[in-house]
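ARCHIVE CARD
CATEGORY: sequence design from structure
SOURCE FIELD: tokenized fold
FIELD CONTENT:
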């Protein structure tokens, strides 16, 4: 038998066979029972024969298996003495594509052989070496049982010199036990539970439940240095000094924050207007104007009226008269009626923006009580006015 002629074709056929790999895990132990056939090289005093094999091995890694295989074949003598050959071989398998649709392997083995002959004078022990290739084939049981065809060339030395055999094995590979798997790494630590791992968290110790940015620090929407979760006064204007609660400072305690207080240092208990200045008995609402010959407020009047609203809300225990005045142009009765309507318009605005209606009254004084000469345009403009007159508590 010319082994060198058929070995390449048999190896190629096994590699390219249309098979499916049984999935193996690194660290998995397995048993391999099987049947073997031995083709003896020409000129040997024994004939081709079949036998059995059983192996025990482990997938050391996803690329390497190591196994110990025992084989037994009883060869007819072919005109000479029969030979019962028992071999124990240690095999190294290099596996490719273990988790792909097919997986060939390359095999190297070293063994010890015991040859019992029907002629006791021909008994002997020898070492052997093997080289071969094989495949793992899934039998459709989720990778738990595999068919394993294998072809290898075995060389050993007999009393008559070295000899080569071709060995074909078809066996089952049956894994058992649990594969060794490295424990999963622990999840990244997040000590404060804000969803940002400690290695990235620039603000460790954030209180539970707070909303944080990707760096683990809380938002500070108004930029006052107090995070939103602790800020009792969100929306503080940029640059306004604040206390530890995020609220604007009011050092004189007049209810007007320092950044808005035009009169800092007001004595304690002093009534103040919206600018933080002492409240006068009569407040001239400069900047509050009306359309010509009308009680309709101009758009530009809103800013001054909003300031007046803040003052009255802060001093809600006062009684206040909204007084309207005109210049001397036109009849006295007309001016009286116009001044009353204008005073009412201002009062209506204040009430609609939060001032208690019970603290207000509206009175029109017409052209009475001028504060400037009606002989000039500038004087007449001064006389057309609305004031808030403090009547008491």
């Amino acid at each position: 038998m010319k082994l060198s002629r058929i070995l390449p074709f048999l190896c190629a056929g096994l590699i390219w066979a249309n098979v499916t790999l049984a999935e193996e895990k690194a660290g998995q132990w397995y048993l391999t029972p099987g049947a073997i056939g031995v083709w003896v090289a020409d000129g040997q005093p024994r004939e081709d024969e079949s036998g059995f094999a059983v192996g025990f091995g482990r997938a050391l890694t996803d690329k390497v298996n190591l196994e110990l295989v025992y084989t037994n074949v009883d060869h007819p003598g072919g005109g000479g003495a029969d030979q019962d050959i028992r071999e124990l071989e240690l095999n190294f398998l290099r596996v490719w594509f273990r988790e792909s649709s097919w997986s060939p392997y390359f095999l190297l083995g070293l063994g010890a052989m015991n040859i019992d002959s029907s002629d006791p004078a021909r008994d002997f022990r020898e070492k052997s070496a093997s080289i071969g290739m094989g495949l793992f084939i899934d039998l459709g049981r989720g990778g738990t049982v595999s068919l394993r065809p294998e072809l290898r060339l075995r060389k050993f030395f007999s009393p008559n010199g070295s000899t080569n055999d071709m060995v074909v094995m078809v066996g089952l590979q049956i894994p058992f036990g649990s594969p060794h798997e490295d424990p999963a790494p622990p999840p990244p630590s997040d000590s404060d539970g804000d969803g940002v791992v400690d290695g990235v968290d620039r603000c460790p110790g954030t209180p539970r439940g707070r909303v944080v940015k990707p760096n683990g620090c809380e938002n500070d929407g108004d930029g006052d240095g107090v995070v939103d979760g602790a800020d009792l006064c969100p929306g503080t204007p940029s640059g306004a000094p604040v206390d530890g609660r995020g609220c604007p400072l009011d050092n004189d305690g007049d209810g007007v924050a320092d950044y808005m207080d035009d009169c800092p240092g007001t004595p304690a208990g002093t009534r103040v207007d919206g600018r933080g200045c002492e409240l006068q008995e009569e407040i001239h609402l400069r900047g509050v104007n009306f359309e010509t010959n009308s009680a309709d407020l101009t758009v530009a009047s809103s800013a001054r009226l909003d300031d007046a609203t803040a003052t009255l809300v802060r001093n809600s225990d006062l009684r206040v008269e909204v007084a309207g005045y005109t210049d001397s142009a036109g009849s006295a009765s007309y001016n009286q009626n116009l001044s009353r309507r204008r005073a009412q318009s201002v009062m209506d605005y204040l009430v609609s923006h939060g001032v208690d209606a019970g603290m207000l009254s509206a009175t029109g004084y017409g052209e009475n009580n001028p504060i400037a000469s009606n002989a000039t345009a500038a004087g007449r403009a001064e006389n057309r006015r609305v004031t808030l007159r403090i009547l008491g508590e």
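CARD ANNOTATION: The CA atoms of residues 270 and 355 lie 20 Å apart. The first strand starts at residue 29 and ends at 40.
SHELF: design records, drawer C
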